[in-house]
Design a protein that fits this description.
By secondary structure, the chain is of the alpha/beta class. The protein has two domains: 112 residues, Rossmann fold (3-Layer(aba) Sandwich); 111 residues, Rossmann fold, CATH 3.40.50.1860. Helix content is 48%, strand content 12%. The strands form two sheets. The protein has a four-stranded parallel sheet with strand order 5-4-6-7, sandwiched between helices. It is globular and about 45 Å long. The protein starts with a strand and ends with a helix.
């Protein structure tokens, strides 16, 4: 028996990529066309943005907790959230959560350790990049890190919210990410975290000057492993 995966969604593109990865890669663990049971719940991105723009992370947490209870009622055994930014609210709700969670930044840190990377560039929304979500996880894993410069954070944030969350993939925006990653490489980074669940729609190992750590797919794969092998794995 596999465990039932509950996905707490935020943006449609990120949640869809995570769900699709679980379903398509389940066959690698099970058999053709097979995957663990999956349930997805998401409040509208607009509701999350109301709280995020007001820096009301308690409000963000309550939305996540609402989804957690709905997914528990649907029979999920554990939870994942394919949205890096709202992980800022996760610590405050863990003791009230009906189910355990996999933490996206901790999953990425473990993968970076396994691949023997030493210093990671962090990319994502400005809310995520300005936060301690990744620095805390990377520090705990003994890994170095680098944030984008302020102007880079602003432009990356614009690309995410004006293009990627709407499913718009622009060659010019891919080129901008490549420039940022090239600067990070020159500053000593040996890999880069795609710390927004939509960034992999735009850039990946095939067009990046640095190896990429795709947080969305890494989280989905960690969920698959837990669902098949159990929580001790």
């Amino acid at each position: 028996m596999t465990q039932h995966i509950g996905i707490v969604g935020c943006s449609a593109e990120g949640a869809a990529l995570c769900y699709r990865t679980v379903c398509l890669e389940g066959a690698q663990w099970l058999r053709a066309h097979d995957h663990p049971e999956v349930s997805l719940h998401t409040h509208a991105l607009a509701r999350y943005m109301d709280y995020i723009d007001a820096a009301d992370w308690a409000g963000v947490g309550e939305l996540m907790l609402s989804s957690a209870h709905k997914l528990a009622a649907a029979g999920a055994d554990f939870l994942i959230c394919p949205d890096n930014t709202i992980h800022q609210a996760l610590p405050a709700i863990l003791d009230r959560s009906p189910l355990p969670w996999l933490h996206i930044a901790e999953v990425v840190a473990r993968e970076a350790q396994a691949r023997r990377f030493g210093r990671l560039g962090i990319t994502g929304t400005r809310y995520l990049v300005d936060s301690q979500v990744y620095p805390n996880a990377l520090d705990a894993a003994g890994l170095g890190w680098l944030r984008p410069q302020p102007a880079e954070r602003a432009e990356i944030n614009r690309i995410i919210f004006e293009e990627l969350v709407r499913g718009i993939v622009s060659p010019a925006s891919a080129g901008y990410f490549q420039q940022v990653f090239e600067r990070m490489r020159a500053a000593g980074c040996d890999a880069v975290v795609l710390g927004c669940t939509e960034i992999p729609l735009l850039i990946n190992d095939a067009n990046s000057p640095l190896p990429t750590l795709d947080s969305t797919r890494l989280l989905a794969r960690a969920a698959l492993k837990r669902a098949v092998q159990g929580p001790s794995q």
